[in-house]
Design brief:
Helix 7 crosses helix 8. The radius of gyration is 26 Å and the shape is globular. It has 13 helices and 40 strands. The longest helix has 18 residues. The strands form nine sheets. Strands 33-34-36-35-37-38-39-40 form an eight-stranded mixed sheet, with helices on both faces. The protein is an alpha+beta fold and about 800 residues long.
């Protein structure tokens, strides 16, 4: 909320259901499992890997009675054998499976015991670069004049949210360390004060399975309130609230048996959850539900969305208690049409991909006529209508016309402005549109007072190859936006690049002037010692694929070590961002590279919708391999020095790269990898499956079965030498189940003809898809990954005992 309409729809797994996150591979302290290897020592033999038993199991692709297998399932179904299916345990409690995972963890620990001093050193360097006690950017929130801020304290793993009314006396709103104290895992999914800022609603995931409990805290007394809402999808938003009567409502959502958010509810504070009202139920298994308030605070938007289609209802939450308000449909769903509304004044402003404008266009409609028939281009104000930044970058009273080369991804409204985030020319971008009320004239055809564009401009930043976006309160509390005031001329933007740490700017939307309000401190880091560039690689079909590269100037060597990463799914842009965890690699001579392959959104929606999904998905994998070959051929690196990494759907990319060109890579980090695609995507009981049929296709249908089978990582492993591979998983991951990683490790080892390649599996038995919630543990995990890469590339100056 208050971070843009597209982003405001909480709970919808819309952009990256198999996420690209900053969180990395899982690491837990484990006891030695049955059949595990002996600890490494100077006289020890190489550890013996766990061997997963093989149990024949029939998997059906096509018609299965009583199951949703899509609209055109194959009949009769096709049978395939999955002799590792037994590793699946939906309850995550089977002792034999847990023992196998522990044995795998012990095997990995034994193989990397000699690299533990390096992992500790890298971890110390990462933590040493942090200002452990730090205050993030303060931001105003609410009518009472509060300023909120997220604080971290040395030695404490979780953030503390504080606020003040006088910029001096800060009170604690929520200490997440106290909430997390009795838990093994603790992730905050939502943080929302009510409009009076007397009550806080927040949600907690205690396991990593992304099922949340919504709690309430009285901010006047500091006491927890008796209301607790269990089994939610994580989001919470305040509906109608009347401080004079004490009536307060919140909206939340719940999930079906397949972990799909399917219902939005309204809860009245002080009542039992059993009395809550279901506001919207979405029965179509292709769709998820989500909700969020408009930036103005007047409307609750309630959305049903699939990967390709959506529809939005709304409730006027200022008109009275929800029980007396109707749910209004803005525009009925139409296959392939997506739209995202935002409210300001008497109008809706809407991003829409209608009329073939897949990169989205900006239109508007009156509140009284919200349907698509009344959507019109936002007109320019005749004569410009204003002062200040008119004409900066374009637009003295001219409309913000649709452009094929510009992608609009989110929209945030303020009293006098609209802020649009998106992309242009392949780079992250943001635009500011200043609005004015202008009386009707002959050039404007919808007949009343109008919100027109007085001026607009594209924001400017120190580097074009960057990532810019409206700020969140903190990277430690990303569920809270830092732009919470509607009537303001100032918006907070965050800017970063591969060599520039995240910097928060206060941006004056009227004058286009900005000032730094919060640079991220990185002790010992001097940006002048590092360099970055962006190149284009022409791949096999003639397409030019961008690649972002960064390195330390005095450490780069010809044909030297490189870590190449990629993602390429869901239309997610894998933008060049700064990572303090990567600095220790660059300081050791490793070049960091990001391949912006098709399937992502870097070059616009066509990069994804037309060229990187369904029956064009192989472009993603071909692009990555061709980029790697180019980097070797041009002397950036060599096959003996090239490491690659990908997370989640990026793990699907890693699996294909290894299958296609195993000899091209020295080592691979596949974090929570989506590699058992065929078996997962045929089974509607697995979380995310049905919704993802609009991403990959449905292998139950003949149209997609053979194509998906031809690139499924598990089905295309061939006998032969393999690179060294570190595979990570989280036991409670609902997005990419732990058993995919476990099966992948077993199948890769069985196909490795050398029998001595390190193919390692590390499962965090207390976390989910986003790994550890403890910031220090997260840094340990990244250091562990980096130690594996450095060791594989011959940069650890250490060997296992049996190799000495």
């Amino acid at each position: 909320e208050h971070s843009g309409t597209h982003a405001a729809m909480v709970n919808i797994v819309k952009v990256a259901p198999i996420a690209i996150g900053a969180a990395v591979a899982a690491r837990a302290i484990i006891r030695r499992g049955r059949g595990g290897p002996r600890a490494a020592s100077a006289s020890a033999s190489p550890p013996v890997p766990p061997v997963a038993k093989r149990v024949p199991h029939k998997v059906l692709f096509g018609v299965v009675e009583g199951e949703n297998r899509g609209t055109k399932p194959m009949d009769p179904p096709v049978e395939r054998d999955d002799d590792l299916f037994w590793l699946r345990d939906d309850d995550r409690k089977d002792p034999s499976i847990v023992a196998h995972l522990e044995a795998e963890n012990a095997y990995t620990e034994a193989h990397l015991a000699h690299a533990q001093p390096l992992a500790k050193k890298v971890y110390d360097e990462i933590v040493g670069s942090i200002q452990e006690t730090d205050d993030d950017v303060p931001f105003p929130w609410g009518d009472k004049g509060h300023t909120y801020m997220v604080r971290t304290v040395k030695g404490k793993a979780y953030p503390i949210v504080v606020r003040t009314l006088n910029d001096k006396d800060w009170e604690t709103v929520l200490d997440v360390n106290e909430v997390a104290a009795p838990l093994k895992y603790c992730s905050v999914g939502a943080f929302r004060p009510d409009p009076s800022h007397d009550i806080l609603a927040y949600s907690i995931d205690p396991s990593g399975y992304e099922t949340y409990e919504v709690r309430f805290k009285d901010l006047v007394t500091g006491e927890d309130m008796p209301d607790v809402i269990k089994g939610t999808a994580g989001g919470v938003s305040w509906g109608h609230c009347d401080a004079s009567t004490g009536h307060r409502e919140v909206y939340y959502s719940t999930q079906d048996d397949a972990h799909r958010p399917d219902k939005v509810w309204r809860h009245v504070i002080g009542t039992d959850q059993s009395a809550d009202t279901c506001v919207l139920h979405e029965p179509d298994e292709l769709f998820n539900v989500g909700f969020g308030r408009t930036s103005s605070g007047r409307f609750m938007l309630i959305e049903s969305e699939s990967t390709e289609t959506n529809e939005v209802h709304y409730v006027d939450i200022t008109a009275g208690p929800g029980a007396g308000q109707s749910l209004v449909l803005m525009q009925a769903r139409r296959m392939g049409h997506r739209y995202y509304p935002e409210h300001r004044g008497d109008h809706w402003f809407i991003l829409t991909n209608r009329d073939g404008k897949i990169n989205f266009d900006l239109v508007r409609a009156r509140l009284t006529s919200p349907s698509e028939d009344h959507w019109r281009t936002v007109p320019g104000a005749p004569g410009g209508g204003g002062e200040g930044c008119d004409g900066v970058g374009g637009g003295d009273g001219r409309p913000f016309q649709w452009s094929e080369g510009r992608t609009l991804e989110s929209l945030c409204a303020f009293k006098d402005f609209l802020v649009l985030e998106g992309r242009e020319g392949g780079f992250s971008a943001a635009w500011v549109l200043r609005l004015t009320e202008h009386p009707a004239d002959s050039e404007i055809d919808d007949g009343d007072a109008h919100a027109c564009i007085a001026s607009w401009h594209k924001t400017s930043w120190p580097s074009q190859n960057c990532c810019v976006y409206t700020s969140v309160a903190s990277s430690n509390l990303s569920c809270v936006g830092a732009n919470q005031v509607f009537d303001t001329d100032t918006v907070m933007f965050s800017y970063q690049s591969l060599t520039t740490p995240k910097t928060v700017y206060a941006y004056d939307m009227r004058t286009a002037q900005s000032k730094i309000v919060k640079p991220t401190p990185v002790a010992g880091y001097d940006a002048d010692k590092y360099a970055t560039t962006r190149m284009e690689v022409t791949v096999r079909d003639g397409t030019k694929v961008p690649v972002s590269v960064a390195w330390r100037k005095n450490s780069k060597t010809p044909k030297g070590p490189m870590l190449l990463s990629g993602y390429g799914s869901y239309g997610v842009s894998n933008d060049p961002t700064f990572s303090r965890e990567d600095v220790p690699l660059m300081d050791r001579g490793v070049v960091m590279a990001v391949a912006h392959v098709r399937g992502g959104g870097e070059m616009g929606r066509h990069w994804y919708e037309k060229e990187g999904k369904y029956l064009a998905k192989k472009n993603t994998f071909n692009d990555f391999v061709d980029v790697a070959e180019h980097l070797v051929a041009t002397g950036w690196t060599s096959t003996s020095k090239l490491a690659i990494s990908g997370r989640s759907a990026g793990g699907l990319l890693m699996g294909n790269a290894v299958n296609m060109r195993p000899e091209l890579f020295k080592c691979v980090v596949a974090a929570v990898p989506f590699v058992d695609m065929m078996v997962s995507m045929c089974d509607p009981s697995i979380p995310l499956t049905t919704g993802e049929w609009e991403e990959w296709g449905n292998p139950n249908e003949e149209e997609y079965y053979e194509y998906m089978l031809s690139y499924g990582p598990m089905e295309n492993i061939k006998k032969g030498p393999k690179p060294e591979v570190l595979i990570t998983a989280g036991l409670h991951d609902p997005r990419v189940a732990y058993w995919e990683a476990a099966k992948y490790a077993a199948r890769l080892r069985a196909a490795d003809e050398r029998k001595d390649s390190r193919i390692l599996l590390k499962t965090d038995l207390a976390a989910g898809h986003f790994s550890a919630s403890d910031r220090y543990q997260l840094y340990k995990e990244r250091a562990y990954e980096h130690a594996f890469v450095l060791d594989s590339l011959g940069l650890s100056n250490a060997k296992p005992g049996w190799a000495k």
